[in-house]
Predict the 3D structure of the following.
Amino acid sequence: DGGITQSPKYLFRKEGQNVTLSCEQNLNHDAMYWYRQDPGQGLRLIYYSQIVNDFQKGDIAEGYSVSREKKESFPLTVTSAQKNPTAFYLCASRRQGATNEKLFFGSGTQLSVL
Amino acid sequence: GESVGLHLPTLSVQEGDNSIINCAYSNSASDYFIWYKQESGKGPQFIIDIRSNMDKRQGQRVTVLLNKTVKHLPLQIAATQPGDSAVYFCAENLGIQGAQKLVFGQGTRLTINP
């Protein structure tokens, strides 16, 4: 059963703590993305990666870091530098190359601050 | 700027009626557009897409129109059902230095009244 798996579903962060959100896909997609969603707002791009061992900053990368050591995995770390981390985080992937390739999304991780 | 916007944040329709969710995009260079449906606490699901060389595309009960003159991308849902209640996002695809980047609008919450 192919798809994108995000874990955990809910995550709590203490002040000054770094937390890592997991994203795994078995769709053999080259490109992976992390979006942040705040209530009543659209999706904002944090980071994206088009190929293993390479990634680029999106529109709101400050306070976040990523790695892409494997094609299947694109973990997102929310660092203590991110002062307002409470949000719904969505991971997505798509095939690379053609223009009309849709994004496939995971089920999301809700991050809250204790 | 590179923003995708929606005219109405909320929309209510009676079950069985047709609905139209509007979307305005600002970048005339966008070459591909997608509509997503997002239910509460879940990731967005693909509904329908359209390329910039088309002016209309139909799916099951859904139709997307592309008016490049005024840069509008309305989504029509026919014979609405309770399961259509969700937030709907439009997104435009921008090709930036070889990377395909989707820019999302704010979203419209559609409520189907029984």
